[in-house]
Structures are given as structure tokens and as C-alpha cells.
Design a protein that fits this description.
The protein is mostly helical. The chain has one domain. Strands 1-2 form a two-stranded antiparallel ribbon. Helix 2 runs parallel beside helix 5. The protein is globular, with a radius of gyration of 22 Å.
């Protein structure tokens, strides 16, 4: 079928016979990108740790808050990936220029807002840390790091668009280049020129500039063809806002956990950051599979082939849970040894980090199931359910249990991580119940009707 010469027929889904292969093809570059980002953060943490514990605690606190400032935009821009993938599945590539243009426009506006918020929040961090000195370093780091917020969100817009059309290799190359620049500048500015946390922030911004340039260059043809449409802005906004609200509320819950842990003691704060970066290695492939599943599900929904959605979900879960199980065994056997090696001779830090690592064993596999189910629901445009469940489980578990178990009962950071484990396990069960019962189908049908209504 065509309207005014533009095809509106569904595109053939060449991956439909082997969704597992397609998931791996999309997911492995996303995994590399995420590992690169994690390595960037871990490298900065390692370099700052050579300067002092207060500097490390300050950068950890400011890093979480800096991410919180852009997380609404990052979550919202995932809606662009869903719409792009659905347009590809529906054979409506004519919509891509306006969808990408809408995503970039929203990214710029939200990036400038995050920059301004960062400058306002930075001076307040001195009072949020158990150590005034650590709070001072947190304020320094955030004031500089927030200058890169527009770069982060514009890059996120281009990355999500690239994922939506099935290209995950270009963002991977960009991420690797940005990581290389960041690590080189960390060594130069922190250790060579002794700029401390300020050097870490400058190195991160330079890494952001690099990855944005490296992704924009191969997309230059698409960028020259950008179009502006109020309808596309509304579509991206309405699709993305539930994602953005869910993301910022969940990050807000985690931010409360981080702030409460930071106020417990410097050892708790440092152990929290250390183990968080460590177990990210086990989380990242599952998150990559969730992104890949969202793309394939979006294409299936756009092509009106909903029967493929459960197949994609099951393949993604099998792959993600299998990898997480291997990590679980590795941490169970080698966890204490890894914690001692990362603690640089600090016995108290090693003991606390080992305890947190043991608590994480309770939710490693559940976290994979949790994020993959979310990816499936996002690809089917069932974003409201995902948002409501994600917000409810995060706010009814982690902050209250951190206060009760961590502070009132004296378990410290361990109490907070017990709350985090309950949040993840309960959320995973509710999300998979939604997937298994096909509760996403009405949202998928509505997405197809909306796509058909924009035929030109």
C-alpha cells in the first residue's frame, strides 16, 4: 500500500527465523559500548583513588548526582529508538528524518536545563557528605562535569536513533574512542599535572566531545536530511516521557541510597562505589540484550507480527540469565579476593566491600530478567505499565529499607543493598508476568494505529 507515492507496507523481518542471532548481533556492540562506559568511569575512579579517599567519595557522590541530572533526558530519548524501530518495521523510513530531528531538538533543550541545574546544585554537595572535605571535592567535580550535559544528551539522541535502525556498531566505535581519550587525559591531568578531581571532570568532558564527534560523522548524511515536525516532537515526547519519569524516579531512589550510605561513613561510601562499578560488569550484557530486544520487538510491532514478541523475549532472557549465572558463580568464588585487591590494603574497606558483593549475589540473575522484560515492554510501547511498576518497586523498597536496616538497625550499606535486592526481584516478577500474559498488546496496537495515522 502507498499514500502519495510513499510506501506504507511492512518491511520484511529477516531475523524472524533466528531472533537469537539477531539479538547477539545487536547486543555485542552495545555490550562493548557499555563496558567502555563502565571502564571510563572505573578508570576515573581508579585514578582519583590514588589521590585520596575523600576525593574518591566526592567524585562518587557527584557522579551519581550528575547522572541524575541527565537521566530524565536519557530515558525520554529511548522513546526515539522505539519509534524509529517501529517505523523501520512498518516500512516507514520516510519518518526517520523528522523523528531524529525531534530527538535532537529535545536533547539540546534538556541538556541546557541539566547544565544550569548542575551549577545550582554543586555548592549544596558540601552538606550532603559525611566529610566536608569530600563534599568540597564533590562540588568541584559536579560544577565542571555538568558542563558536558548537552553533549551527553545529543549523543544519546544519535545513539538511540542508530540503535533503532539496527546499527549498534557506530555507537560502539564512538564510545571506545571517547573512552581512550578519557583514560589518556585522566593519567595526564590527575597524575601528571595533579589537577585532582577537576582533572577527572575535564577528562570526562573531553571524552564526551570525542564520542559525539565520532558518532555524528558516520551519520552526517542522515543529519543533513533532518526535518522538523511538531507531530514528531509530540510523538517522541509522549513515547519517551514515561521512560524518562521512570528513569529519573529510579535514579532518584538510588541517589537517596547513595546519599544515605555516604552519610554513614567514608568506608561505607567507598565500598558502595567500588562494588557498584564491579558488578556493573555482570549487568551490562543483560542491559545490552534489553536494548537489542527493544529494537527487535519494535520492528515486530511495526510490522504487525506480534507473535514474534514472545520469541524475542524468551531468547533474550535465556542469553542474559545464562551470562549472569556465570558471573554469580565467579563472584561467589573470587569475590573476597577481588575486594581485597581493589581496596589497596585497607582492611575495613575490603571487609565491607566483600559483604556488599555477597548481597549482590541475591539479585544478579533477577536484574537480567528485570531489564530484559522492560526492554520488551518498551519496544511494544507499553511504557506506562513499566513506569508505574518501576517507580513503585524502587520507592517502596530501597529508601525505606536503607533507613530501617542500614541506619536504624546499624547494618550500614549492607542494609541498603538488601533493599535494592528486594526491589529488583519483585520488579522482575511483575514485568515478566506482564510479558507472559500479553498485557502489552493493546499498547502495540495503539502504536500501529498512530504510525498509520502519520502516512503522508
Amino acid at each position: 500500500m502507498s499514500v502519495l507515492g510513499v510506501s506504507t507496507s511492512s518491511a520484511p523481518l529477516t531475523w524472524s527465523e533466528h531472533p537469537g542471532r539477531a539479538l547477539l548481533r545487536l547486543a555485542w556492540p552495545i555490550t562493548v559500548s557499555m563496558v567502555s562506559f563502565s571502564t571510563m568511569t572505573l578508570a576515573s575512579t581508579a585514578f582519583v583513588a590514588q589521590v585520596g579517599a575523600d576525593e574518591l567519595a566526592g567524585v562518587g557522590l557527584a557522579g551519581v548526582i550528575g547522572f541524575a541530572l541527565v537521566c530524565f533526558g536519557i530515558g525520554l530519548l529511548r522513546g526515539a529508538k522505539t519509534l524509529v524501530s517501529q517505523a523501520v518495521g512498518a516500512g516507514r523510513r520516510d519518518r526517520l528524518p523528522e523523528l531524529i530531528g525531534a530527538a535532537l531538538g529535545i536533547a539540546v533543550v534538556l541538556g541546557v536545563a541539566a547544565l544550569a541545574a548542575g551549577q545550582l546544585v554543586a555548592p549544596l554537595l558540601v552538606k550532603l557528605s559525611a566529610s566536608p572535605r569530600a563534599g568540597h571535592f564533590a562540588a568541584q567535580y559536579l560544577a565542571i562535569r555538568s558542563l558536558g550535559a548537552p553533549l551527553v544528551l545529543v549523543y544519546a539522541a544519535l545513539r538511540e536513533a542508530s540503535y533503532g535502525v539496527g546499527n549498534s556498531t557506530a555507537p560502539m566505535r564512538a564510545s571506545l574512542a571517547g573512552n581512550a581519550v578519557n583514560i589518556a587525559l585522566d593519567a595526564t591531568l590527575i597524575l601528571g599535572l595533579h589537577w585532582g578531581v577537576q582533572g577527572a571532570a575535564v577528562a570526562t568532558i573531553c571524552g564526551n566531545v570525542t564520542e559525539l564527534a565520532m558518532l555524528a560523522w558516520p551519520m552526517r548524511t542522515q543529519l543533513r536530511a533532518l526535518a522538523w515536525s511538531r507531530r514528531a516532537v509530540r510523538d517522541v515526547w509522549s513515547q519517551g516521557v514515561p521512560n524518562g519519569i521512570q528513569f529519573i524516579m529510579e535514579v532518584g531512589s538510588f541517589l537517596i541510597l547513595t546519599v544515605l550510605v555516604a552519610r554513614m561513613s567514608a568506608v561505607d561510601g567507598a565500598a558502595h562505589q567500588m562494588v557498584l562499578h564491579l558488578i556493573n560488569v555482570s549487568f551490562l550484557p543483560a542491559h545490552a540484550l534489553a536494548e537489542a530486544a527493544a529494537v527487535l520487538v519494535g520492528q515486530a510491532v511495526g510490522a504487525n507480527r506480534d507473535h514474534l514478541v514472545p520469541r524475542v523475549a524468551r531468547r533474550a532472557l535465556a542469553l542474559g540469565a545464562g551470562y549472569s549465572s556465570v558471573c554469580l558463580v565467579g563472584y561467589a568464588v573470587l569475590g573476597s579476593m577481588i575486594a581485597r585487591a581493589m581496596s589497596a590494603g585497607d582492611h575495613a574497606l575490603a571487609v565491607r566491600a566483600t559483604m556488599l558483593l555477597h548481597v549482590s549475589l541475591a539479585f544478579l540473575v533477577a536484574d537480567a530478567a528485570n531489564v530484559i522484560a522492560r526492554g520488551v515492554l518498551r519496544g511494544a510501547s507499553d511504557v506506562r505499565y513499566a513506569a508505574v511498576v518501576g517507580i513503585a518497586t524502587s520507592w517502596l523498597t530501597t529508601p525505606p529499607l536503607t533507613l530501617l536496616l542500614g541506619m536504624h538497625w546499624g547494618l550500614g550499606a549492607v542494609g541498603g543493598w538488601i533493599g535494592l535486592a528486594i526491589e529488583i526481584v519483585v520488579g522482575a516478577a511483575l514485568f515478566w508476568l506482564r510479558v507472559a500474559r500479553s498485557g502489552w498488546q493493546p499498547a502495540a496496537a495503539a502504536a500501529r494505529r498512530s504510525m498509520a495515522g502519520t502516512a503522508v
